[in-house]
Amino acid sequence: MIETIFIALLLLQSLIFFISNSFYFCFSRGRNHNIRKNVNNKYSVALVIPCYNEEAVIKRKLINSLSLAHPNGPFRIYVVDDGSTDNTLKIAKEFKRLNKTENLFIWKHPEKKGKSRALNWVFRKIKESIIVITDVDVLLKKDSLVNLIANFRDPKVGAVNGKIIVNEQNVKITTNMESFV
Fold first, then answer.
1. How far apart are CA 105 and CA 116, in angstroms?
2. 60: left (phi over 0), alpha (psi -120 to 50) or beta
3. Of all helices (H) and strands (E), which one includes residue 167?
4. Where are the alpha helices (H) located in the chain, listed in sequence order?
5. Cα(154)–Cα(33) distance, rounded to whole angstroms?
6. Which end of the chain, C or N, has fewer beta carbons within 10 A?
7. Phi (first) and psi of residue 147, to 5 degrees
8. What pTM was estimated for this model as a whole?
9. Average pLDDT over residues 106-118
10. Which whole number is the average pLDDT over 64-87?
11. Closest C-alpha among 68, 48, 71 to residue 152
């Protein structure tokens, strides 16, 4: 009895997989995938850093973000505070003032509703063509943005995800590195 149910569920799963992939193949054929212009041309990049009570790591993240190599075109960093009760916002604003960074924007989400709401709020405000989201406690390798954007040369690519590498010297999550390959 159990084997019959297992086989039936396996067949159902295979059928669903086959049908969904058939629909994708049929409806994606003939579409114009060359919407994106040549990646070597100028385009804009937004690095979005959502945060909540991150006073211990926000300065290190901003230093890391400003040191990133990035392609030609506008590059802006958006720190989005989601109602922190510590000094996260104060530290970020002081960092911006001391470093006189014109491409760093510090925004406070008007109401504490969580990371997803804060990100959606930011997405409605920014205009850059490529948006990179990174956590405060993740450090990016210097060439991460360049490697990430290189993937968009393929017109079929719509999104790219990073790979987390834990720092062997200190396994705390605050020392992770994202590498876009």
1. 19
2. alpha
3. none
4. 2-28, 58-66, 88-99, 115-125, 144-150
5. 9
6. N
7. -65, -40
8. 0.69
9. 88
10. 91
11. 71
